[in-house]
Amino acid sequence: MAQEKFGASERFACKVLSQNRSALRKGRPAVSFEETQLRADLRVVAQKYPAWGWRKARWHLLEQPQWDGIALNKKRVRRLWRLEGLTCKPKVRKKRRSGPGAGEQKRLKAEYPMHVVSFDFQSDTTSCGRHIRFFNVIDEYSRTALAIIPRRSFTATDVVAALEDIIAETGVTPAYVRSDNGPEFTAAALINWCATAGVNTAFIDPGSPWQNGFAESFNAQFRREQLTGEIMDTMAEAKYLADEWKEIYNHERPHGSLGGMTPFRHWDRWTAENQLAIA
């Protein structure tokens, strides 16, 4: 531009502008097909999972066959994620609690799948304003969502039925169940069932939800990634949304605490590594 405007030579124009002459002759580097495809795949992931950031998107792509053996390092994915202008919903950071009772339940740590199963209720409403409750059950070791059951109300008998369904599906009885002291969890029906089934209870201290951290974290993720962006008109829709997110959570959603693996893959890996011990 300076050459055309002032009639200067290339050498003089580059000297005045402190520009290297070789850089002036270099064209814009061609974008590889691989990078174009990666950017397209990142856009697809961001559209399908709007609550995910670039880390989860990278872990997810690493599990896809088309990216097997291809270097998807963190800096590259983060750079392209930002170039595409992709974002995710910001997380609400909660204050970490301390003091008496805050770490009481840390002494019971899950060491294998179905060692410690935690559960809790989560509330929401349908579009008509009626109350709805989700009974969420999580395996603490593998982070697997064992159940997300929506109903208008629950009794201790309903909780027992849900736990029996989980045992029938997995073929394993949990060693411990962790929950708060809600009436459904302290009723005789559930306590007697635990005693008969050989399941130990690990109740958290009253008014200490942080002691049931896995269930609380799961509830927050479920609300942030599914419930917040959906309107439920009927119980059938609530069940569909719960089942849909359970499938995504267990089979597609990578977990940072699991090294980027999904809960089901983490469980399967543990099973493969401990087959002799299980037998």
Count of separate DSSP helical elements:
13
Structural class comes to alpha/beta
Total count of strands:
5
- The chain-level mean pLDDT equals 85
CATH third-level topology of the largest domain:
Nucleotidyltransferase, domain 5
Radius of gyration: 26 Å
CATH homolog superfamily of the largest domain: Ribonuclease H-like superfamily/Ribonuclease H
User: How do the SSEs run, as a string of H and E?
Assistant: HHHHHHEEEHEHHEHHHH
How are the strands of the biggest sheet laid out side by side?
3-2-1-4-5
CATH architecture of the largest domain: 2-Layer Sandwich
Largest sheet: 5 strands, mixed
How far is the N terminus from the C terminus? 77 Å
Helix content range: 40-55%
Shape: elongated
- Provide the number of structural domains: 2
| Strand percent estimate | 5-15%
* Low-pLDDT residue intervals, each spanning 5 or more residues: 96-106
**CATH top-level class of the largest domain:** Alpha Beta
Would you kindly provide a written description of the structure presented here, covering whatever features stand out?
- The protein has 279 residues and is an alpha/beta fold.
- The chain has 2 domains: 1-84, no CATH class; 116-275, Ribonuclease H-like superfamily/Ribonuclease H (Nucleotidyltransferase, domain 5).
- Helices cover 46% and strands 12% of the residues.
- It is built from 13 helices and 5 strands.
- The chain has helices at residues 2-6, 10-16, 21-25, 33-48, 54-62, 74-83, 156-170, 183-186, 188-197, 213-227, 235-251, 263-273, 275-278, and strands spanning 116-125, 131-139, 145-151, 176-179, 200-203.
- The protein has a 5-stranded mixed beta sheet with strand order 3-2-1-4-5, with helices on both faces.
- Helix 4 packs across helix 5 and helix 7 (156-170) runs parallel beside helix 9 (188-197).
- It is elongated.
- Residues 96-106 have low confidence and may be disordered.
